[in-house]
Design brief:
By secondary structure, this protein is mainly α. The chain has a domain of about 110 residues. Helix 2 runs antiparallel to helix 4 and helix 3 packs across helix 4. The radius of gyration is 21 Å and the shape is globular.
């Protein structure tokens, strides 16, 4: 017969190390912000019934504004590079600055979240939140890849006139 161990020892073994908790907090904030709707990108929020353009614009406004501000006042972008415009791809200067802003906001949020949670002796592991985060990222990735694939397969991005040469 196995003797029962005190609850405190069992809980200690299931605790995540500090670097694991901080890493999860960063990953949760980074991927949560990264998966928000932005212009030209697909988001799971686009699949919600009744969602419209204003819904995506409302969610993307703070990050888009921060990226544009960073481009103009930090990197001194001017004219067309400093304005959001449709290009059909995500490799504009503002898109890269948007990714930088997501990284900086996630880093700052991680510092604040960790300082608050560690000081008050908060959670020692995030197993359920980790499972939900993985599910969210998987669905977002699948939906993004499907939308990208459909854009290539159906003659929307590449009309037939490009094939006849």
């Amino acid at each position: 017969m196995i003797p029962e161990q005190p609850l405190a020892e069992t809980e200690k073994r299931s605790d995540w190390p500090l670097w694991g908790r901080v890493g999860f907090r960063f990953a949760c904030l980074y991927w949560g912000l990264y998966c928000l709707p932005t212009a030209g990108a697909f988001s799971l929020l686009d699949l919600l019934p009744g969602s419209s353009r204003w819904f995506g614009a409302w969610f993307s406004w703070p990050l888009r504004t921060a990226a544009q501000w960073t481009g103009v006042y930090v990197f001194h972008l001017g004219s067309e590079a400093a304005a959001w415009h449709p290009t059909g791809s995500g490799d504009t200067a503002l898109n890269y600055l948007l990714d930088l802003c997501v990284f900086v906001f996630a880093l700052a949020g991680t510092v604040v979240w960790s300082a608050i949670d560690e000081r008050r002796g908060g959670r020692r592991e995030y197993r359920t939140a980790y499972a939900w985060l993985r599910l969210f990222i998987r669905f977002t990735l699948a939906a993004t890849l499907l939308s990208y694939g459909f854009a290539k397969v159906f003659p929307g991005q590449f009309p037939h006139r490009h094939w006849a040469r």
